[in-house]
Design brief:
about 1100 residues, Phage tail protein beta-alpha-beta fold, Immunoglobulin-like, 22-stranded antiparallel β-barrel, five-stranded mixed β-sheet
């Protein structure tokens, strides 16, 4: 009562008022005290009440527009209080006497939204009376009513719901969002815009939706929920927990080559990631505790991404974490358990008898004129020895040796609360992930401290994060070493020990002479290691000052420090050092990198509404950024046997090498102006302009402008369509220019390094980087159009987006003559034209919120096409290099970066077993000629997407998400390397079983592959390019939520969620090809428990 008395005494001289005064509030979820205080500021009215009788700390929804004061008060108070006006102009608030019912019972329950989240401040009334209550912070309510009463639940932004009590003592209600009232907000990371008036193409996903797909990381879940967000399958590294995925949003905009990236650069086709308003790295996002994620917004087109200017051409992923909320202390705990099972189903290898037969038919055990000093009887003896082993039952399955069932265990706890002016939150998380290859794994940990202070119109928040990881690669090396191991060799010798070599005697390899075959298990037992450790400290400070109701100032400052150390030691006993000097046996590599950066931004926002029809919002923002990275690398060779990899024990640096260092500092500055105009909730316009300055490109091209213009049209309001049928019908389009700086630092000055040679002129130097001060920014013109629809109160929703992106000029790295001393040189050349289509559809055949039953099916798809232009043979050197390296990619005008290039094949001649090619002139020939190479396929799928099927029945949920990918071509390396193109010496390795069963052997054989005894070098031809159609069990999940159980009250448990998942549990493909060459893919089963206290 103390606060109310002070307010009252201070303003007793204020004149009387009328209940007919109008009030407008736009505060969102605040305490009742804050809402009453704002009403006092607007109306000069004082309130008198008792703190003991009126809970002024409870959370209410304070959103009103030009509403009667009395209506506002009853909505905030829930009609459970009397509101009286005194002659002195003071409002008295006192509790009503409870109604008396004939057959009175106590009813309790919880009110949630359609995602299961509790709703605080919901008004609960007995129908026909003004008696009722409101829900607390956790959506709970308790009310004494007649057993025949009907309860009425109402809340801003949701449809009013009536529920008969019917004698029940527990009534739980799920409110349905009212699209006509609910103002959905698009968070761009810089500004917030109303969804209905925003003209950009965006997708917003809640944290609960991400967790419904899987519990590994937010990136893996996000790919299921939006078709524009694609993770390109990594056929080499498979499910390696330490790999970074290759991500694309709406296709490519850049040429990606290693020469375009310095050691600190990233993938130039990767989107920009923003975490709580500040740019961050993909690694940070992947290691982020997904239990702390509130929402993710994908910004796809220029209207939504132009705010980020030079870094927005590939889209922007905006991640917002949960903020601490007012109220008593709450503790949220989540435990995740995951089981990864190696998927070896795509390996089609020979067994022991098949492998020996393949060797016999291919001539490995037949002496020839090429054989010197070796008699046939010796070959026969070795052959018979191996045959005897096979007859004894030796058929070693090597693939299971380096793999295991990997487990992941994660814990996350967050405690938060606060009072009127201060909220706090502290979180801890830890995850231990064991990969499916033995010895590989990744342990991540983190802590965060969130503080918010509010005083009047000032809001200051600070977020401190400290996190890190410890990553290990498998000591078993590449999985391909075990896929190549011969099945007729034993893993262990006669004493049960792992021998260094599989064959006791020298083994004839059919080409180079005698050879010893290393045991891949032996190297895994050594004390070799490959470890990376990282720690990152980030602090975000933000201040918001509401100068007036229309003007707001925002400033933010981020400072971060990252330290990473990687250490790789290969023991001298490793078989790769066979026949090498002890001075070169054993290697040690240590690389240490330090990164320090800061960002400061400040923004002014002005928003107003004129004549209730013209909504205008303007923003002016400036930002400066600096990031410095330094590295030191050391490589030592030669270690005594049995040493642990201490570099002090090494004999020397690697030959012709010395410690390497690197330093990189870039600075960026930008100024952004944006405006949004909406007329009568029908016509919408967005305008963004940004100018960027950066040290990444040439010194003569330091600044570049970026801009966008967007427009939208609400057809429902325009034509006053029946809202019972049309919930949403909106058109939008945009055009704009964005940029890309994902290349690392491209020097605008020449860089030299000292070498070890001294001549008559003194110390000599080498040119390592050639300057290009005129290197221009890579810019992308983005055109986008979309239509959004929703029918029958959101039971059917659909969205169609089309786009076209032209990147001109591209930044390309070309080869230079060896006389320059520089291997590559970045320049501007050509353009890339990308266009695509996205479709998202969802429908609910069953939508009964009253019974808590909802069945929703959905389909999303994406189709993308790209092509190059205006190269004019500038990149011929890259095409020549691609030909030499047997790459299937080319850089040619009018063709796609996804096109596959090879000589067209007409198949295998049944008479001779030789391949027949088609020349550029259309003539068949037996001669392979690189001049006949042409486009023979395209690796980009014709269409890709996800089919979803979700069922919710009361507290039970079930979701099935199946990915489909149709029409893309793949180069089947299993056919190219393990069926054909097997060298004479390569016959000692295990091969695909088709090398035995599907090769040509006799005249008249109709086969797909050359003669089994043909060892000629096979060129790239269309025979090895196949169309692949795939269906993947991407996510299957089942969950149950416990709430309002008597046993939960005894331990202070408010809510308990249990979920089980299966991810990538099956994969059906139209072709047989090896996947996970260096590291296998995995099938996953996982479980999650979330408890809220």
């Amino acid at each position: 009562m103390k606060r109310s008395l002070i307010l009252c005494i201070s303003f007793l001289s204020i004149s009387a008022f009328s209940f007919s005064q109008k009030v407008s509030l736009k505060m969102g979820k605040v305490t009742l005290y804050e809402a009453l205080k704002e009403i006092k500021n607007q109306t000069e009215v004082d309130f008198f009440y008792s703190d003991k009788e009126v809970n002024i700390d409870r959370v209410v929804s304070a959103n009103f527009k030009n509403a009667e004061l009395i209506d506002v008060l009853y909505t905030l108070l829930g009609n459970t209080y009397n509101v009286q006006k005194t002659t002195e102009g003071i409002i008295l608030i006192s509790p009503k006497n409870p109604a008396v019912f004939q057959n009175e019972i106590q009813v309790k329950g919880v009110v949630t939204d359609n995602s299961g989240m509790p709703l605080p401040g919901v008004t609960v009334l007995v129908k026909g009376t003004k008696y009722g209550t409101t829900t607390d912070f956790d959506g709970n309510y308790v009310l004494r009513v007649d057993e025949t009463s009907t309860l009425v639940f109402s809340y801003i932004g949701y449809k009013t719901t009536e529920v008969p009590v019917e004698g029940r003592t527990e009534v739980n209600v799920q409110l349905e969002a009212d699209v006509s009232e609910l103002e959905e907000i698009v968070i761009t990371g810089i500004v917030e815009r109303k969804k209905e008036s925003f003209t950009g193409a965006t997708t917003t996903v809640k944290g609960e939706e991400l967790k419904a797909i899987g519990n590994l990381n937010i990136i893996e879940s996000l790919k299921t929920l939006d078709p524009s967000f694609v993770i390109v399958e990594d056929n080499l590294l498979g499910s390696n927990p330490n790999r970074l995925p290759n991500i694309e949003v709406r296709g490519k905009t850049s040429i990606s080559t290693d020469d375009l990236r310095d050691e600190f650069g990233g993938n130039p086709n990767q989107p920009l990631f923003v975490l709580d308003g500040f740019e961050t790295t993909l690694r940070t996002i992947i290691d982020l505790d997904m239990n702390r994620v509130a929402s993710i917004t994908i910004l796809k087109d220029a209207a939504s991404t132009a705010l980020y200017g030079a870094r927005a051409a590939n889209g922007v992923i905006v991640v917002e974490t949960k903020k601490p909320e007012e109220g008593k202390l709450q503790i949220n705990y989540t435990s995740d358990f995951r089981v990864d099972m190696p998927d070896l189903s795509d390996y089609n290898l020979m067994n022991a008898s098949q492998k020996l037969e393949y060797e016999r038919l291919s001539g490995l055990w037949t002496a020839s004129s090429e054989v010197q000093n070796l008699q046939q009887f010796e070959l026969d003896a070795q052959y018979n020895e191996i045959l005897k082993e096979i007859n004894r039952g030796v058929d070693t399955y090597w693939l299971n040796e380096p793999v295991r069932v990997g487990t992941t265990l994660g814990h996350s706890v967050y405690a938060g609360g606060g009072a009127e002016n201060v909220t706090y939150g502290i979180g801890l998380n830890y995850r231990s992930q064991d990969g499916v290859m033995k010895g590989s794994g990744r342990n991540t940990w983190g802590t965060n401290l969130d503080l918010t202070y509010r005083k009047g119109s000032l809001n200051i928040s600070n977020r401190l994060r400290i996190n890190g990881y410890d990553a290990d690669e498998s000591p078993y090396g590449s999985f391909s070493n075990f896929a190549q191991a011969n099945p007729y060799f034993r893993k262990y010798d006669e004493d049960g020990e792992i021998s260094r070599f599989l064959n006791i005697q020298d083994y004839w390899d059919g080409a180079a002479g005698r050879a010893r075959i290393g045991n891949p298990l032996y190297n895994a037992m050594l004390n070799s290691r490959d470890n990376t450790e990282n720690i990152q400290i980030t602090n975000n400070l933000q201040a918001i000052w509401r100068v007036t109701d229309k003007l707001r100032l925002t400033s933010g400052f981020q400072i971060s420090k990252i330290s990473t150390t990687s250490e790789v030691f290969v023991a001298p006993e490793d078989t790769r050092f066979e026949n090498k000097s002890y001075l070169e046996s054993g290697t040690y590599n240590n690389n240490h990198a330090e990164n320090f950066g800061y960002t400061f931004n400040t923004m002014a926002t002005y928003a107003t509404v004129l004549n209730e029809k013209h909504a205008i919002t303007g923003n002016l923002r400036g930002s400066v950024e600096e990031n410095s990275t330094s590295s030191l690398g050391v490589r030592a060779v030669g270690f005594p046997l049995g040493t642990n990899g201490n570099p002090a024990y090494s004999f020397s640096y690697a030959p012709n090498s010395k410690p390497s260092t690197g330093e990189n500092t870039y600075r960026r500055v930008n100024l952004v102006a944006s405006a949004n105009y909406a007329y009568d909730k029908t016509y919408f316009f967005d305008l963004n302009y940004r100018i960027d300055g950066s040290t990444v490109f040439g010194s003569n091209e330091k600044y570049s402008p970026f801009w966008s213009v967007g427009a939208g049209w609400n057809l429902v309001n325009e034509f006053d369509l029946d809202k019972a049928v049309f919930s949403i019908l909106r058109l939008r389009g945009s055009i704009g220019r964005t940029g890309n700086q994902g290349f690392g630092n491209l020097s605008d000055v020449s860089v030299y390094t000292f070498n070890t040679y001294i001549n008559s002129f003194g110390q000599s130097v080498d040119l390592t980087t050639l300057a290009n001060p005129d290197l221009r920014w890579q810019n992308t013109m983005d055109y986008s159009f979309g239509i959004e629809t929703s029918f029958f109160k959101n039971r059917i929703t659909a969205q169609i987006n089309t786009y076209k992106k032209i990147t001109d000029p591209l930044v390309v790295s070309i080869d230079l003559p060896s006389s320059t001393g520089v291997a590559a040189y970045p320049l501007n050349a050509g353009l890339m034209d990308t266009k695509g289509l996205e479709v998202i559809f969802r429908g609910s055949p069953i939508y009964n919120l009253k019974e808590g039953t909802v069945w929703t099916v959905g389909l999303n798809l994406a189709a993308v096409k790209s092509k190059y232009d205006n190269f004019r043979n500038v990149l011929q050197s890259l095409n020549d290099e691609a030909l030499e390296n047997q790459s299937l990619l080319r850089f040619r005008d009018g063709y796609s970066p996804d096109d596959l290039w090879a000589v067209e094949s007409l198949g295998i001649d049944p008479a001779t077993g030789e391949e027949v090619y088609l020349t550029a002139n259309g003539e068949p020939t037996f001669e392979y000629n690189a001049d006949d190479i042409k486009k023979v396929g395209n690796s980009r799928p014709t269409v890709e997407g996800v089919f979803t099927n979700n069922v919710r029945y009361k507290n039970f949920s079930l979701g099935i998400n199946l990915r489909y990918r149709f029409g893309g071509d793949v180069f089947n390396r299993a056919l190219f390397n393990k069926v054909e193109n097997i060298t004479r010496s390569g016959r000692i390795n295990n091969q695909d079983v088709r090398a035995l069963t599907d090769r040509w052997q006799n005249p008249g054989d109709v086969t797909q592959f050359k003669s089994i005894s043909n060892f000629d070098n096979v060129g790239l031809s269309s025979r090895f390019i196949q169309e692949e159609n795939v269906i993947i069990g991407e996510s299957i999940n089942i969950g149950y939520q416990f709430e309002n159980q008597s046993w939960m009250d005894t331990i202070g448990l408010k809510r308990l969620k249990l979920n089980a998942y299966m991810n990538d549990i099956f994969r059906i493909s139209s072709i047989t090809a090896e996947r996970g060459i260096d590291y296998p893919f995995a099938r996953t089963v996982s479980f999650s428990l979330n408890a809220n206290f």
